[in-house]
Amino acid sequence: MSNFCILPWISIETTPLGQMRVCCLSNENIKNSQGKDFLIENTTLSNAFNSDYIIDLRKSFIKGEKPKSCNRCWSEEESGRTSKRQNSWHRLKNLVKHIDFSNPNNGDLIFLDLKLGNICNLKCRICGSFSSSKWAQEEIEINKNYQSEYHRPANDFLKQGQWPRKFDAFWNDLNLILPQIRYLEFTGGEPFLISEHFDFLQAAIDGGHASQIEIHYNTNGTHFPSNGPDLWKHFKLVEIALSIDDMGPRFEYQRYGANWNSVNKNLNKFRQLRDQNSNIILQLCLTVNALNFYYIDEILRWVPNQMFNYHYLNVVHDPFHFCIKHLNDNAKKLITDKLSAAEIPSIFSNEIQNLIQFMNSGDSTNCSYLKQILQDSDVFRKQHLKDHHPEIAAAIGYE
Question: pTM score, two decimals?
Answer without folding.
Answer: 0.94
